[in-house]
Amino acid sequence: MSHAEAPAPVIKAAEHEAESHLPMGELPANHLFDTVLPVRPALLNRGSVERMKPNLVEELLAGGGARAMVLSGRQALIHADALVLADAAQLRDRLRDADAGPQLVVYLGAALGSSSLPPGTEILLFILSETMDARAAGLPADSSWEGFRDVAARLDPTHTALFVEASAIANWHATHTHCPRCGTPTNVEASGWVRRCPADGSEHYPRTDPAIIVTVVGPDGRLLLGGGGPLDARNYSTLAGFVEPGESLEQAVVREILEEVGVRVRACQYLGSQSWPFPASLMLGFTAVTDDAEAKPDGVEVTRARWFSREELQAAVLSGEITISTRLSIARSLIEHWYGGVIQDRPLDE
Ligand SMILES: [Zn+2]
């Protein structure tokens, strides 16, 4: 049964104890005490022990069989709706011959049986300082440089995971070239997963910025979505913001929602997360309840806020009145978690 057909009332957090005595038909939609988002298992063994070996990358290049994906800035080399995963040693030689790097090589891991690659395939990341003509590297001439948002919908989960991991580590290297203590340029160690300062010996590890992303549910069970930019824009999404130093995740949820839409969150629950390294975020998904029925956008980050019942949201998406986040995003997963099922997208040809 779809919750769109039979929306159920949201039970207040204080009523949790009573909830377990309710007959099944009276349980609210997946809210606060029901399911969390499903775990998407890792597709790569990152080899956190193996990558500490000082010459791992050189050994993999010399041993043959390792594959390499290529990243420059935020773009990866793509061919036929997949990452180009070239023979790593050959590609390294051809890039050298073409005087094109790579600037840095990072060990990404070995394919697990759950991935779309032959199990055990070792994957390296070649980071180039500039994009280059694929033909010069002996790669298919119709390869193209594409950003994650442009290509993610066409990639399989393994290639998506590789693009995300590669982006996260490459963005860190690009912005953490010097020691934060003394300013000396740092050296890369641990197959690309540590940078060490030669002056004071300090070790520096890849960084991730936690951000909360939240479905806010009102006293009548409706969902609050918001958007930025022009007042007449059609896109609506979950509210989100960065966690500040010294703050718990829950405190960040309460503060951000109050700041952005003037709504006081009474209780919230963690549901799941998504890496979003553009440039360095980890999105921590929550659902929250409020007793407030009115939302007041701050006019800066959020210019539009609107409450939706399940029927209203599905109808608004189908009619094209609004757009919501794509299926690639945790925002969509959170919205559908509240909805209690799949929200149908507007057909592309309309
Ligand atoms: Zn230093």
Write the layout of secondary structure elements.
Elements: H1 16-19, E1 44-45, H2 56-63, E2 67-72, E3 75-79, E4 82-83, E5 86-87, H3 88-97, E6 104-111, E7 122-128, E8 144-147, H4 148-151, H5 157-175, E9 187-189, E10 194-196, E11 203-204, E12 209-217, E13 223-227, E14 239-242, H6 249-261, E15 265-276, E16 281-290, E17 304-308, H7 310-319, H8 330-339
Parallel strand pairs: 2-7, 12-16
Antiparallel strand pairs: 1-6, 2-3, 2-5, 3-4, 3-8, 6-7, 9-10, 10-11, 12-13, 12-14, 13-17, 15-16
The protein binds zinc ion (ZN).
Q: Give the total of domains.
A: 2
Extract low-pLDDT stretches.
1-27
Q: Specify the helix fraction band.
A: 10-25%
Radius of gyration: 23 Å
Just give the CATH class of the largest domain: Alpha Beta
Q: Compute the number of helices.
A: 8
CATH structural architecture of the largest domain: Alpha-Beta Complex
Estimate the mean pLDDT confidence: 90
Which small molecules are bound? zinc ion
CATH topology of the largest domain: Nucleoside Triphosphate Pyrophosphohydrolase
DSSP summary, beta strand count: 17
Amino-to-carboxy terminus distance? 28 Å
Tell me the structural class.
Answer: alpha+beta
Beta fraction: 25-35%
SSE pattern:
HEHEEEEHEEEHHEEEEEEHEEEHH
Q: How would the global form be characterised?
A: globular
